Amino acid sequence: MPTLAAMFSPRSFASLTALAGALVISFTGCKKEGSNANADEIVIGEVAAMTGGTATFGTSSHAGTQMAIDEINAAGGLLGKKLKLITEDDQSKQGEAGTVAKKLISREKIVALLGEVASGRSLEMAPICQKAGIPMISPASTNPKVTETGDFIFRVCFIDPFQGTVMAKFAMSRGWKKVAILTDTKQDYSVGLAQFFKEYFAKNGGTITGEQSYGSGDKDFKAQLTAIKAGAPDAIFASGYYNETGLIAAQARELGITAPLLGGDGWDSPSLVEVAGKAIEGSFFSNHFSNEDQSPKIQEFVKKFQAKHGKTPDAMAALGYDSAMILADAMKRAGTTEGKALRDAIAATKDFDGITGKITLDEKRNANKSAVVLTIKDGKFSFVESLAP
Amino acid sequence: MKQYQSQLALIIALAVSLGVSLCSSSIDDYYLDIMLNVGINVLLAVSLNLVNGHTGQFSLGHAAFMAVGAYGSSIVTLEMGAAMIHVFGGHGWFAEGLTFLIALSIGGLCAAICGWMVGVPSLRLRGDYLAIVTLGFNEIIRVVLQNTSGDGPFGGALGLKGIEPYTNFFWVFATAAIAIYTISALVNSTYGRGFLAVRDDEIAGESMGVNTVRYKVIAFVTGSFFAGLAGGLYAHLRTTISPEGFNFLKSVDVVVMVILGGMGSTVGVILAAVVLTVLNEFLRDFEQYRMIVFSLLLIVMMIVRPQGLLPATVFQRRKQA
Amino acid sequence: MSQFIQQLLNGLFLGSIYALIALGYTMVYGVLRFINFAHGDVFMLGAFTGLYLNKLMGPILAALPWPVAILIVLVLSMAICAALGILIEWLAYRPLRDKPRLNVLITAIGVSLLIEYTGQLVFGATQQPFPAIIPKVNVGGLGGLTVTMTQVIVSVTAVALMIGLRFIVMKTKMGMAMRALSLNPTASSLMGVNNSVVISFTFGLGSALAAAGGILYASLYPSIEPFMGILPGLKAFVAAVLGGIGNIPGAALGGLIIGVTETLVAGYSDVLGIPSGYRDGVAFVILILILLFKPSGLLGKVEREKV
Hints:
The structure holds three protein chains of three kinds. Chain A is of the alpha/beta class. Chain A has two domains: 193 residues, Rossmann fold; 127 residues, Rossmann fold. Helices cover 45% and strands 20% of the residues of chain A. In chain A, the strands form three sheets. Chain A has a seven-stranded mixed β-sheet, sandwiched between helices. Chain A has a five-stranded parallel β-sheet with strand order 2-1-3-4-5, sandwiched between helices. Chain B is globular. Chain B is mainly alpha-helical. The two termini of chain B are 20 Å apart. By secondary structure, chain C is an all-alpha fold. Chain C has a domain of 213 residues. In chain C, a hairpin with a 6-residue loop joins strand 2 and strand 3. The chains are: A alpha/beta, B mainly alpha, C mainly alpha.
């Protein structure tokens, strides 16, 4: 009785095989042709999270990158050609970044790739760029592992060990000896910062009074904060993103904790103050740049950004801008867009005068530059000090 | 001849995938990537279809089993891969292939064991509990993986990186073909009538002497095993994995494929997996609307055409008496 | 000791909101025998309705004394979400009244995703601050314990709503019809109960409770986004199962147990030797345990499935 039994198993094979065949036939032969690299255009790829959970960072860095490209084109382009930025959205999803990186490299014939903000997704693209010999510059992936992938992978931001250490140094300089740590275990960034903070702080005579964790998206931190309160810390290192930090600050004050909070560049959003209100006043975080900085270069950037987007640029925008500018600078020095030459030129970047400071790329292809410490005063981020590496 | 038809089809499918794999260097990287995604999604959809379609249960945690398989196999290749390749005679397609095969199988087995642990308590209960338990298991796996140490074998929130890119056309499509063959053979065997009995009327099945719980557990464990293999293939394609990539939404993607294709219809589900994966590439610019459209489709389908776009009955035209 | 009591209080306040959401799950399950997946999303919509009401009527609300203001916001959002709940039932679930339960479950998941992603498109994906309608003052400083005005209002409102619900279900005609329907839909319709009206009413009532839960939750944790309903919704569902699904006091009890356990796990993680981040997994571990050992829940009755 061969009912649907024998009927559709071979049929499903037939359809699968036929489909696979059809896919292959339609796609083979496409290779290496159809390059849309116009003779008078240099195509640069960008992968950013334009939608999804981390879209705030992605759209910000994209705005900065696009602004840099537009400025270069307005000033006549590079090597006698115009720059063309092709941006792909990875939807803040694992798996997508790799696919779109391959798309940009094999379909769009990009000469270099800018992105991603999130370290996890940069790690996905890095081996692809390395294998293809396409230089990749990440604007804001702070995890050390990103550039360890290979010699084509660069970044223009400082790394987690540096940022964690900066805040530990800052806490020591304020005379805070007892610090509690609150990490977001969903974010490798937060975990990394906390780890390096802890290492430096404990080695230099500080005491960690308690370690608590949560996951992004959580709203209730009272349990963790009550436990932290019992240790009576001088400060709390809350290394997560602004989304949760606002609530953490508010709940800490409700529980009668007066110790200031400390954090990293993930705090950089006006939404932090909107949610936390007065509770976040007097807390400190490290960042890539301060848009209050009065140097003419930064003020000009802030003004231009404001004119275009109607808001003050955050650190992601500044880093996106710098990543494109460093790439352009290297192209000019290399005089070509060929992968290896471009790679060597980027690696040779020294004392580049960027928005986020004087950038020198070290032998590990990480940006060597200072961090700034900001505090929240009257609902605004204000500059406290600058800490060199 | 007729009784060997499906075996023959399997052999042809394996041969074709090997053949394509050998000349895959002439395929554009991006298109190859899409094809491999298609294959992995077919594998996921077909394996979920065994649970949600043929057996009429409802799992919402397929991504969790994928995660277990991905982590299991990656840890094997990362921690022991070099040693294994050495033992198998140094680098080369044979040693690497054997290593990958072992890693994949271990990942699949880990997923199957997890499937058994989740399935046994929850499958005694009605279908909608399974939905919540599997969803909960998905969350538990994510929470546990994320809270591991960043330097440990699981890599914490950042996950694992530097996984060898072993996955190629052959591995993906051979696994998918074997999964389709196994699941079809299972469902269409005399023994497999039990699955359909569970789906069509559990109480009637039970009174006819069908051990419904056992059938449900077998379906669930088999489905988990293949999801684990899909996870392993995915990990060795992407070379980096993190807990967040196997969240609830990943599970929902697979559920949508199964429902659109038609629960219980292998061909329909395969086509849905192919079409949705390829469509995803064309609809990149409309990402914000994608899930709205999918969710509307789910609702409308359940009201208008609950059997799916290509239900199993469509393929029974040659029905014999 | 005072730390333990503080943790217990933290847990009870959190649990009272889980309880409120769990009531909606339990009621719909009791009447229709299906898990209304979209319940957590109505909870989210409740919070956003509160936000937009506050934007619309800001000056009026500011002029009123705060208890009146919060009452107005609460009642209006409950009414709006009740209407929405009835609409959802009418559009998506009613056509499936006699279909297999699996189809209804899938539809419910569809509705849930639809609300979330439409919410993301309309409200934006980023978090938005929820206005502080209840003044931020501490009311209890006893022995180093802190209780805020918000927490007091939240739990008082939650308890009041639960008592109100109990009254409706046990003492009114509609409540009697709900109980009859839950026992046997065919028999109840033979007894002259208009099942459709009762089901609509149940959905409206459940959605109103979810909306109230949303407003209260947003007042406690004033940062709202379109996906905020998923996790509390799931935990509340576990609470409903823990208490015995279909059982109203059980849902309340389950909510409190989940809230307290979760808080204690996070607060004493160092004693337990696990990361406090495990707290989000607690509810699901409880779910698996309860299904293993007492699938009918703490207060539920054992039910045999009949043909």
